[in-house]
Amino acid sequence: MSREQDRSYKELLAELLESGQLFEDADFPAKSFSIDRKNPPHDVQWMRPWEIFEQPLFINHSVSRFDLDQGELGDCWFVSATSLFAMSQPAMFERVVPKDQTFERGKYAGIFRFNFWRFGKWTEVVVDDRLPTKNGRLIYCQNTNQPNEMWGPLIEKAYAKIHGSYQAINGGFIQDALVDFTGGLSEVINMKDKSKLPENMDSLLMKTLRMNSMLGSSIAKASLTVPGEVLLPNGLYAGHAYSITGMATVTDNAGERTRLIRCRNPWGRGEYKGAFSDSSTAWDSIPDEEKEKLHLVDREDGEFWMPFEDWKESFTSCEMVHLSPDAIMGVIDDETLAQDRETWGKSVYHGRWVRGVSAGGCGNKPYQRLLWINPQYALLGEPEAAQDDGKCTFIVSLMEKNRGQFEETSIGFQVFKVRNDTPRVINQDNFSDYVLRRAAMSNAYTNLRETTNRFELDPGRYIIIPTTFAPGKEAEFLLRIFTEKETPKTNEIDEETGPTDPREKDESNLTELFQKYAGGDHLIDARELKQVLNDLYATGGDEERQFGVEASRSMLAMMDTDRSGQIDYEEFVQMITEINVWKGVFDTYDRESNGSIDVYELAKCFKRIGFPVSRRILIPIVKRYGGKDMIMTFEDFVLASTRLRCMFGAFMKHTVGGIRGRTQIDLETWLESTLYC
Question: pTM for the whole thing?
Answer without folding.
Answer: 0.80
